[in-house]
Amino acid sequence: MSKTVLEMKNITKTFPGVKALSDVSFEIKNDEIHALVGENGAGKSTLMKVLSGVYPHGTYEGQILYENVECQFRDIKQSEEKGIVIIHQELALVPYLSIAENIFLGNETARGGIINWNTTIAKTRQLLKTVGLEENPNTLIKDIGVGKQQLVEIAKALSKDVKVLILDEPTAALNETDSDNLLKLLLELRKQGISSVLISHKLNEVVKVANVITIIRDGAVIETLDVQKDDISEDRIIRGMVGRDMTHRFPARTPKIGEVIFEVSDWTAYHPLNEERKISDKVHLKVRAGEIVGIAGLMGAGRTELAMGVFGHSYGKRITGKVFKNGQAIDTSSVDKAIKHGIAYVSEDRKNYGLVLANDIKFNVTLANLDDVSKGGVLDDNKEISVAHEYCKRFSIKTPGIFQKTVNLSGGNQQKVVLSKWIFSQPDVLILDEPTRGIDVGAKYEIYGIINELAAAGKAVIFISSEMPEILGMCDRIYVMDEGRMCAELNREEASQEIIMKAILNSRGRAS
Amino acid sequence: MEQVQKLIKQNLKQYAMFVALFVIIVFFQITTKGILLQPQNVTNLILQNSYVLVLSMGMMFVIITGYVDLSVGSVVAIIGAIAGYMTVQLKISAIPTILTVLVAGVLIGMFHGVFIAYVRIPPFIVTLAGMLLFRGLTMVILNGRTMAPFPKLYENISNGYIPDFFGGSGLNILTLVVTAVLILLVAFGIIQKRAQLKKYDIKQTGWAFDIAKIVIAALLIGFVGYSLSAYKGVPNVLILIGLLFVIYNFVAERTVLGRRVYAIGGNEKAARLSGIKTRWMMFLVFVNMGFMAAIAGIVFSARLNAATPKAGNGFELDAIAACFIGGASASGGVGTVMGAIIGALVMGVINNGMSILGIGIDWQQAIKGLVLLGAVAFDVLTKQQSD
Ligand SMILES: Nc1ncnc2c1ncn2[C@@H]1O[C@H](COP(=O)(O)OP(=O)(O)OP(=O)(O)O)[C@@H](O)[C@H]1O
Ligand SMILES: [Mg+2]
Prior knowledge:
The structure holds two protein chains of two kinds. By secondary structure, chain A is an alpha/beta fold. Chain A has 17 helices and 24 strands. Chain B is mainly α. Among the domains of chain B are: 37-160 and 237-313, no CATH class; 171-234, no CATH class. The A-B interface holds A 16, 311-312, 314, 334-336, 338-339, 345, 347, 352-359, 363, 367-368, 370-371, 374, 377-379, 381-382, 385-386, 389, 401-403, 421 and B 10, 196, 199-200, 202-203, 254-257, 259-260, 262-263, 266-267, 269-277, 333-334, 386.
């Protein structure tokens, strides 16, 4: 029997200069997977933070009803007591604690302050089994991949007797297998009477598992779709999200490809901590002017490690190999040298490697190219302001102004700031590492457009992505990477999802 | 009404330290029955705090990178000792001595910088070692004794005044002229900022607020200027501090160098991946700290007109406290040179006020500790509220 567990009524939430939510109502039944979709900055995360007490009662207007009783959560602890658990966009696990310790962190099975390890471990085993994770409870979090960490987060939620599980972009950093596992788990939990709210920009997943979909735009609910009554194709959802039809996912482009301008040859590097382990193994790669070259592969294939290695030896040890630009060998052994040679690297991890979060948009956009906004070492304030303005407009960054701290921007808009920073550094070679992670369809389209524009201007673009459709839709040529090696090179015409997967499996077969 | 409240709330945070300084001044002005702001005491306040002011400006940059330098007190001591040894024992004149000790300060900074930036030992440990090392060396150089006196020229850095070219009797005319010029400059700066924001169509506070700012600044500068002119005029050391302030404020706010320091403190990894040579910058920050400690060492020894083994004891704590009172963040990336100055003045006024009241050193310490804690707690709480 389906009945309403949770109801949010007329929620309005404002930040200085921003109305993040206006009069939003939202309802969760006891047996549903409720997807929450919308563009970047639409207010999805904010709505869920209101629900879970991250923004305490009194900082917003409106009502929250749990089983028809009004709740006024003052903090997360109180909402958790009701069984509402949120798993944030950024995972909140402690890397140097074990799985078991993380699961029971703040909720330890202890008597008189002394932890009972036997029950803790036993309970952890039970939970790990429920979420389908085969790991030793004593394994440290830092030693397992993001996909598994995500499952640990869910196990942690389950340990708290959860009724409504809120997941904010849980699959953004996961590969397909891990994502599938997670979605299956949600379906499983649903059977056991645990509802979930799923925020995601991956609409194919939404279509696959959700039975109710709420679309919000500019802080207001546009519509709520029900699988049983409405058509919930991806196109239908997109129309609700962006307010118009989007017939193409990728902007049209006629490649104008020139000479090879960037080349990496014989690139070998070792893991910084484990010096025996090769992270890049005799990698060759070349890119022509005006060409968009994809590097496909599974999570952990060594693509980020390769890119960061080439970009100023920022990752890896005992690096050997050469980098050529326009036929000349160049020295990229430090980041500033790499930048001087016209290389830019947009990191996949915007919070840790991309932004100075406590500073504003202006500060971040100009950071990699201060030379262009200064004269003789003195910053030209006017120029900085106009540059920041220009990029905010060009990328339609949603913000009350260029002096907004980047920590206050929504995930997608943060990503646009990072992109702005690197495009402003005027690179000839742009390495993009998962540039559309956590970005909505409309903005993705805009970013693809920008990438195409850069290619049309004769730049070489290296496009790293774990989303196959994106690689297939954007790239002129595709390298397939696995375990630090290039295992295939495919032209646009011959490439397909199956062939890429086959190449990966083949290479593994050969290796073992 | 709500508007006004919001305005006050937003700006309270930004100007909290000014307000705190003001409150403390008023408090001591009342409790000392007006002695605090007498012309002679205003001059005294500046002289007494000159070296802490210098140190906190240098320390601010270290703190912006997210660390602290514990060695500065000992560096102040050893600089005084070297200067004393050179002038008193070796009879070398003032100018070469000053140049030598400035170089010595830079070398000490480089010594720390190499271990911090290139050997990668945490600054806390390196400068703790420096603190012990240079205190020890100071005693070695001085052989446990005090060396005095310094040449007149050297002593005048801290104890001399700018001569009044206008030769007026009574009020010092030069001082008044300088005061007027300063007030005009500040007003001009504020007006220019408005024009710039307007040009870019950026929302800003109303005119009233900026006019209030100008009036308050004018009153403040005017008062200090008047007090100085009513006593002996502008102390040399104030000119030095003014110069350092202008330079360092400019570096922090307007130069690529300053921007990079903020970026490193805000997010070192992102800074490195943006092409900033983080190690080199760390090195420079500590070299600069050494240089500033040398200046403070000169100013302090000149003021005492003696080099003593105990010189500079605990100065590092005053400087660090000044920065935090002035709004710096312990996790790095946040802080201003103006904040360092205000913080140092807060500490200075408290010291001076309590001395006038005859409160003993023991209580002074305890109260300063509480003020530091209170100031930072206030800062943290107001920040949490606005989130
Ligand atoms: N602490 C804050 N201070 C000021 N503005 C904020 C703050 N948090 C969020 N915002 C603003 O509120 C709006 C909604 O943000 P929210 O994070 O909810 O978006 P979202 O829908 O989750 O987007 P994304 O898909 O990019 O994660 C955005 O315009 C954002 O800039
Ligand atoms: Mg979000």
